[in-house]
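All the exercises in this workshop are built on plain-text protein records. The record below serves as our worked example for the rest of this section.
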Amino acid sequence: MVCLIIEHPEVVVCEHAIPKHISQDLQLNPITSQLSFFDHYNMVKFAVIAAVGAFATAKISPSIHRHLEANHDVDVVVEFRDGNQPALRAANLETATIQTRGARIAHVRSLLESNMETSQRAAVELLSSQPEAFTTRVESFYINGNMHVYGANRIVLDELAKLDNVAHIRLPVVVDLPVINDEDDNVVGLPVLDLLSNSTSVQAANEWGVNLISAPTVWAGGNRGEGVVVGILDTGAIHTHDDLKTNWRSTYGWFDPTDKSPTPIDTNGHGTHVAGSSVGQNGIGVAPGATWIACRGCTTSSCPEAALTACAQFLLCPTDVTGKNPKCELAPDVINNSWGGGSGSNWYQANVDAWRAAGIIPVFANGNAGPNCGTANSPGDYKNVIGVGAVGVDDKLASFSSRGPTKDGRVKPDVSAPGNQVRSAWHTGNNAYKTISGTSMASPHVTGAVALYLSANKAATYDDVYKAFTTTVDTATLTPNNTNCGGVSDATYPNNNYGFGRINIARATSGGIAPPSPSSTPVPTSTSSAPSTAAPSSAAPITPTPTTLDPVPTSAPTNVPVTSTVAPVPTSAPTTVPAPTPCNGCTACYATLIDYCFPPRYTQAQCTTFTHFNAIWCGKK
């Protein structure tokens, strides 16, 4: 047997191993059949080189080739065979017997780090051996097993692609920040609640979204989210804001992978607003007793993949501000993600899988690409996250709220929450506020609600939370859109508009039983007040009259109108004060449902039209 050794790439070709189509050519072609085996050396050599080169090239995304037509180098993401899945499979088998949460997460981290080192070893050796002219910067992430290579040229990419365990080489993802909507036209005929601008005033009442999901009822029982840590992955947050400064965790509570700021910053405002709706004080947040930490995965206008991945890693196992000295026991219990883009994109799936393996609950905005069907954004459309749609004060689905189904036909969002015209903290000052709209605003309402649920149910898992939130939703007050996205009727739940329905945290924490109306109310000062895809639920809510938005619990047919506001107080138990008058101090048109006093310019006749708010006239006849 005669063999040839082709040096680049090194391939051994023996006479009996000549490809069938070449051997047939040797026999049938009268010209080539007169040649010896060695006369075909070059033919075989080039054929083998071409075949191996084509296989390697197939691993490189076409978009990279297009980029290199006009550029000398490119930043890329190298994905390895099996990713982080071997580590997560091991974690699922091994962590069940580990007693403490911190130790379990530390074990998950250790498995992920070992997996990364093994899978990336050949790539690291290759890149380390490159000539100085080809030097590139490399950033490896254990959470998903990916490697980011900055400034790679075509030679480096070709060599990487030849490695057996390199699965794919692609361009990094950049997620655009959601467009901020100051007002949505889906709320037809509703007055603007005098909150649609930058403001430095503090309301002496809870925000309407906080009331709509019945958070004050939970507070009245002494639960404001104490003992729960909420992670905010966004543009950062202003930790000195009046409504955020008391419950930020200064130790292992901040990481900025882009600008390395040692203290929290926010140059956009989006993250501060989100943090406020989730855990803010003075009635703007759902879980004011919870502790919050943040990671700056987004800059002023966009969210680079490397930053989002670095934040996913930080929130899995927090480090100091330099990214060192990890303490996994300080990981958050739930993470809010008010960002996303595109549909059916799995680039962030491995990070989410790692969070889930660590017992961390991921909540994602469903996207602002509505009203068309099939517009749910990734990662909000993933199977193992809670994707959130947005409703307005009238419980109507916001027109911008993305609809399902997902690319593989699943129902999304999972639940809906207040997200249209939401007032919260703003980054321009320690007492600044702004009202904006988006599923970015709905997601933190669910995140805060999860914090309340976990505070009451310390050992609850993701599955426990998902079941509790999807089986205790309010649906009777929701308005069908008659779009029947994905062939699912809007009149049945879950559907691809509202998901299972709009969350009701009071019912979720009480096991679906409507708790009694709170008997306490805050004592406001002149400047401030102390302050949720399976089958539809079998219990259908009692349908209220068309003139009210007040939800009627499914398990107890008792109307519980919201006529008072309960806000958190510094002590663990709320302070009881005399019951408010029906108008709660209002001398104009009073909306009992959202505890809001409309400006005096609205007349008694106009007040009678605000039936969705359970409005009553409190002014002079």
About this structure: Residues 3-58 form one domain.
